[in-house]
Amino acid sequence: MTGPSIESAARGWCPSLLTPMESGDGLLVRVKPRAATLTAGQAEAVAQAARRYGNGMIEPTNRGHLQVRGLTDGTVDGFAAAMAGIGLAAAKPEAEAVRNVLADPLGPDDPAARFDSHALAHRLSAVLESDPAFHALPDKFGLLVDAGVALPLAGCTADIAIRADGNRRTVEPAGGDRVLRLPEDAVEDAVRRLLTAFLAWRKGAQDAAAISAPRRMKSMVAACGAHAVFEAAGLNGVRLAESGPPRAAEPPPAGFAPVRDAAWGYFAIAAPFGSMEADGLVALAGLSRRYADGTIRVTPWKSFVLWGVSPADAADLRTAAADIGLVAEPNDPRRRIVACAGRPRCASGHADTRADAAFLAAAGLPGTGVLHLSGCAKGCAHPAPAAVALVATPGGYNLVRNGRAGDAPGRTYLTREAAAEALAAPNPVVPIPAVCETPVRQLAGTVAE
Q1: Residues 274-327: pLDDT tens digits?
Q2: pLDDT at 9
Q3: Per-residue pLDDT tens for 383-430?
Q4: What pLDDT, in 10s, does the model give residues 146-184?
Q5: Rounded to a whole number, what is the largest CA-CA distance in the chain?
Q6: For residue 197, how far is the Cα from the chain centroid?
Q7: Which of 283, 351, 378, 411 could link 392 by a cystine bridge, Cβ 3.0 to 4.6 Å?
Q8: Which residues lie across from 60 on neighbouring strands?
């Protein structure tokens, strides 16, 4: 079962494991770890299947998923069956498409966590999978469960977010000024009610306009108001206190971080430029078995976290991760570079952005903030503003400072060598933090989540 091609895909459509998307290097699918966690054995099985059924390329995404590339019409079913066999797939395509529940990476392993976010994420995922009514949700619609203190999902948003508030939980629809505060055992029912209210409103909007209905909870909140949304769900939300601007996403720097009140810490590791070969995931699983608790936590920052690392082992783990080509140092220049799939992996790409990213990293560029290499003006890999965006065109790279890929460039038609010279020239770059939006805009054939 194949979804829209790059040429025909509508903005906002998201592939899943059972609804692949056409790309420049074949079909791509997404694997969704449950509660942000893969066991080492599951990671090895994903890598083995990526080699057997695809081209072996794996990309972590902004939704905490793994994107696997290079499948064909003849191999998609085999890959999906392999994922189902290790517990990483829903039984039906409709259920798999809406199984979007992001959880903070550490979950109950965080000593300061107010509740077990991973357990709640599992329960909410089961709600989405088991109730056919919710299979009508848009495939971008997502939930977020965050109890993290050592490693929270700061800056991340979702259609419905559940967070800690003392000994209670808050349930907050996107875009509103009201939340529910309630005991944890009431969260599932509240989420069900909000989902049902959204679907009823969406159907009414679609019938009234005779066009595709809005795809996000924030559309309902904007149209009706947060109070009315809760009323429609039979709930009584309370007004949020005035607060400052939302916190920006704070992806953990690569490397080891101790955790307060714990004998262990976590180690953050990134795939260079957002992509790794299957062998890299196998090696990462081996590192988790040797130095950590035998799991890999997949983050919404296109990186991985190993939990349960001893401070005494941190240096050896850093060396081992660097030896297999992964980003394990906070000052690794590859950490600040975001690159989309690019040519030839994406048919929309005008340049091999991954190769050019490696060239620029080796050039030792000065400055701080995100450097975004985009194969085209859609900017799928980093929809937020970047300190610098290099946007490929048929005639070369356009350079945008402190903006998005689609913004007006300051310079045009640069070779990668000329781009390196332009970036090395004195020019103040204002650091712009990465933004984590869950779900994030998806455009065909890219690491857009």
Answers
A1: 889 999 999 999 999 999 999 999 999 889 999 999 999 999 999 999 999 999
A2: 36
A3: 889 999 999 999 999 999 999 999 999 999 999 999 999 998 875 444
A4: 999 999 998 788 999 999 999 999 999 999 999 999 999
A5: 63
A6: 26
A7: 351
A8: 66
| 369 vs 248: CA distance, rounded Å | 13
For the purposes of burial, counting CB atoms within 10 Å of the CB of 323, is it exposed (0-12), middle (13-18) or buried (19 or more)?
A: exposed
Residue ranges of alpha helices (H) inside 151-215 are 187-209
Strand pairing of 57-60 and 178-182? unpaired
Q: Does residue 442 contact residue 14 with C-beta atoms inside 8 Å?
A: yes
Three-class DSSP category at 305: strand
Domains recognised in the chain with CATH numbers: 255-333 (3.30.70.3340), 336-424 (3.30.413.10)
Give the separation between CA 175 and CA 279, rounded to whole angstroms. Answer: 41
Query: DSSP labels for 199-235?
Result: HHHHHHHHHHHTSPPP-SHHHHHHHH-HHHHHHHTT-
CA-CA distances (angstroms) from residue 204 to 22, 160, 210, 243? 32, 20, 10, 33
Mean pLDDT of 118-125: 98
Whether 128 and 95 have beta carbons less than 8 Å apart is answered as yes
| C-alpha to C-alpha distance for 306 and 19, rounded to whole angstroms | 30
Element (H, E) at 23: strand 21-23
Q: Which residue has the tokens 């309630």?
A: 182
Rounded alpha-carbon distances, angstroms, from residue 401 to 36, 52, 172, 336 = 33, 41, 34, 15
